[in-house]
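Bench notes, afternoon.
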Amino acid sequence: MDDERELAEFARRWSEAELRGDVAALDELLTDDFTAVGPQGFVLDKKQWIDRYASGALIHDAFTWEEVTVRRHGRAAVAVGVQGQQSVYDGRDADGHFRVTQMIVADGAQWKLAAVHLSPTGGRTPLND
């Protein structure tokens, strides 16, 4: 499988794992030193990111990953896309529409997500248009 198809398959697996809150899949898809910067500037490590699902605090009714462009840089890639979600976090509405930057790295024969940064677009999600 070539890199372009592998990265497309990685994106599909990641967005499915996020939608389902699949802790085991996310544990496999994220690097051990994964870092996320949330839409309001907070920072989460891998354990904190996954614990949102493990605790049941974050539940997605819908999750999309669209308008994605990927640029390869050696054994790494930068993906920029639009994430839409219909979600509940800790009992509160967490619907959103975000411009997302992902740093994806080759870890042996697998691609893994090393970092993600979310910025709110202020727009409606494509899920509720």
